[in-house]
């Protein structure tokens, strides 16, 4: 029996684009996709884009709330009970590397990933942690928990959308929600994500802007296109206005082509997958988001960001991990990595499993762990990286980095390098202020050994 997801789809698509000009001519749908296509083109000439040499894509899985590294990736069995917790280390496919018995199905695929045990930054607030791990930059002042579109620096997905090699689908897609700090900042709305805003595990799952509304018949659409072409021809006589209308015609047509593209439809229609494949991934939010992401990069999307939430285990940490959180994670990750490898996609797709921070070494009075950014673990796989290894280490309590500190800027620089983008790129705000993308971060050399 399939387990249906109950994950929230509370977030909305945010594009920040004025649509009044489009609506005066009539639209096929909300034209969120057209907005993205139009704005991407508008900024393309000045983007200084450097095509990715190896055409690598990225799937960026963000575990929201803070993965407890000492309960999953970096166990300390010799520590006191109030530090080590209730889980035990088990062997993996790589001799000498152990992970937790709460994720046993991942153990056989550790040879496909690198575990980075020494990631560190100074912010223990969720919202600020999101921003740091999505951008590599510490945010300025303000509440980063109340507002979604809160970027003080472009997110890694927006960096890739601006500088990476384009493809047939929107270059940057968020599923199932717009993740905090996933926006484009000064790069502009054209490089924000196309947000699916629906959980692919839900029975009624559907993606906006890829099919014509039922109310728009073929004949009605033909008349709209004819009217638009007539206006276009008329306005060509006036250079300034004519360019605006010609651009509108271009992006209207691109949106229409995407809506009628079999390639796009098939990429988003997860129901085309067999029941067995869907069950292998798990009928959960994380499982189906990973499956949909595989379909999207397969069809040409450059960067997919996945939100998987509610890992904030301030109380009942053991129960939450064992019963609620890790089972779906433990099923989805190996199914995804094995499927990607079998399809020949893993070598050209960078997989990042990250989180905003770790959890405290000491278990609190509510049997939980609190926020801890001083040291935590993330994982990387695919894209020809050197895998089957652990990079960095923590002290005896998993509290502080003992060897090889890795900063969020280093993580950003690594992603950019893998995707063929110069991590030392300096971009400029509309006021001309220079902003380095990775802010001094260096690619993690051990991944390229």
Features:
two-stranded antiparallel ribbon, alpha/beta, disordered N terminus, 449 residues, globular
Describe this entry's structure for a reader.
The protein has helices at residues 20-24, 32-44, 69-72, 81-84, 126-135, 156-163, 218-235, 239-259, 262-268, 275-281, 285-299, 317-342, 408-418, and strands at 57-63, 89-91, 98-100, 113-119, 172-175, 194-195, 303-308, 349-355, 358-359, 371-372, 376-382, 389-391, 393-394, 401-403, 426-428, 434-436. It has one domain (20-212, 245-448): Alkaline Phosphatase, subunit A. It is built from 13 helices and 16 strands. It is globular. It has an eight-stranded mixed β-sheet, with helices on both faces. Helix 2 packs across helix 8, helix 5 (126-135) runs parallel beside helix 13 and helix 9 packs antiparallel against helix 11. Mean pLDDT is 84; it is low at 1-31, 41-53 and 238-251. The longest helix has 26 residues, at 317-342. It is of the alpha/beta class and 449 residues long.
Compressed to H and E, one letter per element, the order equals HHEHHEEEHHEEHHHHHEHEEEEEEEHEE
Q: Which percent band covers the strand fraction? A: 5-15%
CATH architecture annotation = 3-Layer(aba) Sandwich
Distance between the termini: 44 Å
As a whole number of angstroms, the C-alpha radius of gyration is 23 Å
Globular, elongated, flat, extended or rod-shaped: what is the shape?
globular
In CATH, the topology is named: Alkaline Phosphatase, subunit A
Top-tier CATH class: Alpha Beta
Roughly what percent helix? 25-40%
Classify the secondary structure makeup into a structural class: alpha/beta
Q: In which order are the strands of the major sheet placed?
A: 6-5-7-1-8-11-4-12
The number of helical elements comes to 13
Domains (count):
1
């Amino acid at each position: 029996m399939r387990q249906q997801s109950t994950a929230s789809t509370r977030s909305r698509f945010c594009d920040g684009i004025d649509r009044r000009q489009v609506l005066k001519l009539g639209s096929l749908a909300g034209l969120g996709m057209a907005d993205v296509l139009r704005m991407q083109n508008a900024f393309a000439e000045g983007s200084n884009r450097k095509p990715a040499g190896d055409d690598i894509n990225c799937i960026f899985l963000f575990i929201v709330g803070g993965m407890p590294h000492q309960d999953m990736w970096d166990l300390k069995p010799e520590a006191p009970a109030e530090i080590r917790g209730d889980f035990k280390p088990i062997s993996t496919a790589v001799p000498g590397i152990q992970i937790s018995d709460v994720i046993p199905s991942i153990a056989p695929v550790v040879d496909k990933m690198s575990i980075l045990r020494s990631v560190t930054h100074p912010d223990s607030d969720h919202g600020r942690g999101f921003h740091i791990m999505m951008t590599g930059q510490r945010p300025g002042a303000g509440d980063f928990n109340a507002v979604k579109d809160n970027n003080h620096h472009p997110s890694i997905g927006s960096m890739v959308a601006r500088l990476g090699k384009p493809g047939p689908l929107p270059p940057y897609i968020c599923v199932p929600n717009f993740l905090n700090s996933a926006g484009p900042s000064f790069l502009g709305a054209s490089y924000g994500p196309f947000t699916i805003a629906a959980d692919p595990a839900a029975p009624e799952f559907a993606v906006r802007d890829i099919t014509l509304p039922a109310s728009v018949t073929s004949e009605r659409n033909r008349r709209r296109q004819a009217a638009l072409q007539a206006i276009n021809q008329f306005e060509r006589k006036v250079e300034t206005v004519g360019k605006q209308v010609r651009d509108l015609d271009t992006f209207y047509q691109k949106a229409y082509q995407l809506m009628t593209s079999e390639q796009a439809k098939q990429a988003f229609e997860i129901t085309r997958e067999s029941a067995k494949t869907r069950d292998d991934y798990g009928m959960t939010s994380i499982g189906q988001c990973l499956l949909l992401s595989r379909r999207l990069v397969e069809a040409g999307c450059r960067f997919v960001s996945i939100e998987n939430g509610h890992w904030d285990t301030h109380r009942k940490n053991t129960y939450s991990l064992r019963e609620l959180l890790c089972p779906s994670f433990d099923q989805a990750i190996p199914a995804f990595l094995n499927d990607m490898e079998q399809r020949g996609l893993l070598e050209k797709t960078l997989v990042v499993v990250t989180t905003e921070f770790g959890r405290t070494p000491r278990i609190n009075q509510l049997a939980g762990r609190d926020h801890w950014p001083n040291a935590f673990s993330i994982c990387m796989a695919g894209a020809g990286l050197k895998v089957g290894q652990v990079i960095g280490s923590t002290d005896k309590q998993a509290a502080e980095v003992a060897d090889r500190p890795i900063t969020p800027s280093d993580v950003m620089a690594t992603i950019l390098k893998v995707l063929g983008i110069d991590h030392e790129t300096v971009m400029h705000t509309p006021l001309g202020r220079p902003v380095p993308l990775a802010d001094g971060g260096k690619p993690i050399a051990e991944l390229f050994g």
